């Protein structure tokens, strides 16, 4: 894995990459030499107007470290989120680019993709599983700033919440933050 990080994955053949489209960006996973499981490689990019101007450039290094902290805390509280493996920071003048590596969620599909497909019984089971993950996330005092159907995966082993780079870990659980988080998810469902 380290040699792949050092050369920015240039030696990972295209045929060894499994591609994932996520919004405007394509990420990939691959099996590093000697690794027990596939690794998901996500290069951070911005959305909106800043994304059009800066792409994947960030001032400072807080964002990747916040994601690492939130994911580690979430996993320690039993929340389904991919296991962090590494964060790679690259300086670009006053800015930084970052790449987050996690263990791949096997057979993952985002909920936006799944929304139209399941039967009524499967939808009930999916909603029940999502409600349980949301309860665990809120009990862990973690609030996802961009909770959308694209940021929730159904994998072989259950539901996973991804993209915690803007998540906050509150000092205590707050009903107001619970409601804001669920309202954000609801806006994604209504779209």
Structural write-up:
- The chain starts with a helix and ends with a helix.
- It contains six helices and eleven strands.
- The strands form three sheets. Strands 1, 2, 3, 4, 5 and 6 form a six-stranded antiparallel sheet that branches.
- The chain has helices at residues 2-6, 48-54, 62-76, 111-114, 120-139, 175-190, and strands at residues 18-22, 25-30, 39-43, 58-59, 84-92, 95-103, 109-110, 142-143, 152-155, 158-161, 168-169.
- It has 191 residues and is an alpha+beta fold.
Count of distinct strands: 11
Report the order of strands and helices: HEEEHEHEEEHHEEEEH
Shape: globular
Total DSSP helices: 6
Strand % is 25-35%
Low-confidence stretches: none
The largest pleated sheet is described as: 6 strands, antiparallel
Helix/strand-derived category reads alpha+beta
Helix content: 25-40%
**Termini separation (Å)?**
39 Å
The rounded Rg comes to 17 Å
Mean pLDDT: 87
């Amino acid at each position: 894995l380290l040699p792949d990080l050092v050369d920015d994955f240039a030696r990972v053949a295209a045929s060894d990459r499994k591609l994932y489209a996520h919004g405007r960006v394509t990420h990939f996973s691959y099996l590093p030499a000697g690794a027990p499981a596939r690794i998901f490689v996500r290069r951070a990019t911005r959305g909106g107007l800043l994304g059009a101007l800066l792409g994947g450039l960030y001032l400072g290094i807080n964002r990747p470290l916040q994601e690492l902290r939130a994911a580690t805390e979430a996993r320690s509280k039993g929340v389904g989120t991919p296991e962090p493996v590494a964060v790679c920071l690259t300086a670009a003048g006053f800015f930084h680019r970052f790449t987050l590596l996690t263990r791949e969620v096997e057979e993952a599909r985002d909920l936006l993709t799944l929304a139209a497909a399941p039967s009524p019984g499967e939808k009930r089971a999916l909603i029940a599983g999502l409600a349980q993950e949301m309860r665990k996330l809120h009990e862990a005092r973690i609030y996802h700033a961009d909770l959308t159907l694209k940021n929730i995966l159904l994998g072989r082993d259950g539901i996973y919440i991804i993209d915690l780079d803007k998540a906050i870990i509150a000092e205590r659980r707050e009903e107001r933050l619970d409601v804001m988080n669920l309202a954000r998810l609801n806006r994604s469902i209504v779209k």
